[in-house]
Amino acid sequence: MIKRILTLFIVAFATISNAQNTFTAEVLDSENKEVLIGASLILKGTTNGVSTDVTGLAILKNIPSGEQTIVVSYIGYEDEHLRFIFPIEREKVHTVLLTPSDTEIDEIIIEATRGNRTVANLPTRTEVLTEEIDEAASMEPSKISHLITHSTGIQVQTTAAGSNGAVVRIQGLNGRYTQMLKDGFPLYGGFSGSLDILQIPPLDLRQVEYVKGSASTLYGGGAISGLINLLTKKANKDETLLHINLSHIGARDFNAFTSKRFGKWGFTNLASMHIHNPYDADEDGFSDIAQVSKFNFNPKLFYNPNKKTDLYFGATISKENRKGGSMSKINNENPDTLYFLDKQESSRFTTQFSANYKFSETKTITLKNSISSFDRYINIDENILGTSATFVGNQLNSFTELNLNINKEKQNINIGINALSDKFKEDNFFSQPLRNQEYQTLGLYINHLWDVTDKLALESGLRTDKVDASTLNTENGGQSFILPKISALYKLTPELSIRLGGGMGYRMPTIFNEEAEPYGYKNVQTIDFGNLIAEESYGSNIDFKYQSTFGLDNVLLSLNQMFFYNVIDNPITLNENDIDNLFYEQTNDSLFSKGYESQIKLTVGKFTWFFGYTYTDAYLENGKNKNPLTLTPKHSIKGDLLFVVEDKWRIGWDYDYKSGQFLNNSHITESLFTTGIIVERTIDNFVIFLNAENFTDVRQSNTGNVLENGSPQFTEVWAPLDGYFFNMGLKIKL
């Protein structure tokens, strides 16, 4: 009896042992052969899995005999499917090389910080848009206002109902605190500030980068609330794109982008034309969308004589005419009771030059220069009595930077010097005194990135700026700023990371703020540097990110929670005296912006869902008094659901919610919910698209009269003016 039991036990043990095979693997990066800590090995079709240790090794146990598939995965890398017939040689260590993914967002190189790091490995919190650019171009082919609001905490605010001018607000702060860059050149803003995002077409963009919170250490004054860097396509391949668009409210667009590569030379060019008829959504006799005609031409020439040298020269030529107000005045008809016209003309000419030379594998020097000339004419006919405002001028900017980048395996050091010149000259000789102003800024900076361990990375930076500012009668005598920043990234696991950062910023006083736009700068007094000093800020944020594929194919979950806190001392406000003159002043108060952003992004197969929530508490504090910032919703939600079948279908649904907003009269507006849908069908080289935007017809006029004293001039815009619209068109890839 005992012998039988012993025999059965031996047979059972042998059977179990035979079924419990093991697999030992070492997981490495295919390019640099570095070990990948925390890579997942999953027995396909089961929950049996294991992760690699600090040496990159993992032992997967309890593998049944027979043919089995083991899936090896790691965030930012292509999955590897390994097929074996078990049992196999147990003691053998299988080397698995994973290839970095070209499509994973965490592998995109960030250029705004100059650090040559990916999103996943950069201590400074940075968000990136890539795939969303093509979708947004179908919705608004002539401008980027819809594109840049794809991130939480970003709001495009209309500054004037007549001209439809708009600025970008980050984390509740006014538009003047956001710095706009294109290919790393900070030449937007100032006199062109309310027109910038309306004049940049998205067709040639390849990447949009957001750095939220103080970023003055990177590029100098102006980036108190953050910066947005627009990166254009390079001449890496032969490509021709045509984009034709029509809308039922009078928009017509024709955009063309071409890219050619021939040997060491490359060439790209964007040509765009936008025409929009005036549109009166509520039929009150005033335009809700201005009449616009716009042209843009943006050629670039690239030259790579050898592997060490990279040069390009580019130019931008653009011209725009814009009319808003009384429909009869826009159409050159004799108005009866309705009389208002906001007429604007602008032109921009910009040159860009960049040269990179690689001394060695670790050292690169870069020289950049850009010159921009922007002319703008504003004429506002306010009423039939002949009251009007005229403002004409030229803004001439130049930016030059010399940068040394030392990029080693564990450290990156950026040392640079840059000079920025900003000159505004008023051409309206009826205004006395002329409101000319000039700023000369010289900056020195150093930025250090250090991968302390595989889990901890630190980034520290220090910048010093000296700004000489003057008007016709006053000057600041040269004001200096010291701007430190520090950021840290800690990876608790391969899926979970924490970022913490903070920095300081500043912005020089200027007459060009969104508060002055509705006045057409009429009676706005010149800056008095004897009484005004720079606005200075400090801020911080902490960010938690979780991202995982759960070892599954075509699944990716990203969770992000960020808290922010910003303070601006000596904020400038626009006030009016007894003789109707408008002047800027500082009253020893402070501006606060604090809150948090929550993001969820889930991809399952062909579906991608994004949900973002932002809580913003922004107010002006003077003593014990707190005045909430106007046109700043405390609660906002934005998101979209996207279905994509590659080279066939793209269907997207987006939604946006804003809670009530304070107005200057202390009233609180109604909450808003807007939604839209876009459908694209690809047939060979053709893409047909149909977009329905705000199809629930949410608009400000639904809640009452949007005209202040019978005029749109000083209307605070807190909701869409145009209501719903449909547009459709054709994209052609040649």
Architecture overview:
The chain is mostly beta strands and 734 residues long. It folds into 3 domains: 97 residues, Immunoglobulin-like; 126 residues, Ferric Hydroxamate Uptake Protein, Chain A, domain 1 (Beta Complex); 503 residues, Maltoporin, Chain A. The protein has a 22-stranded antiparallel β-barrel. Strands 3-2-5-6 form a 4-stranded antiparallel sheet, with no helix packed on it. The longest helix has 18 residues. It is globular and about 95 Å long.
Task: State the gist of this model.
It contains four helices and 40 strands.
Any idea what the CATH architecture of the largest domain is? Answer: Beta Barrel
Estimate the strand proportion.
Answer: over 45%
Radius of gyration (Å) = 29 Å
The beta-strand count equals 40
The end-to-end span amounts to: 84 Å
Overall pLDDT metric? 90
Do you know the CATH topology of the largest domain?
Maltoporin, Chain A
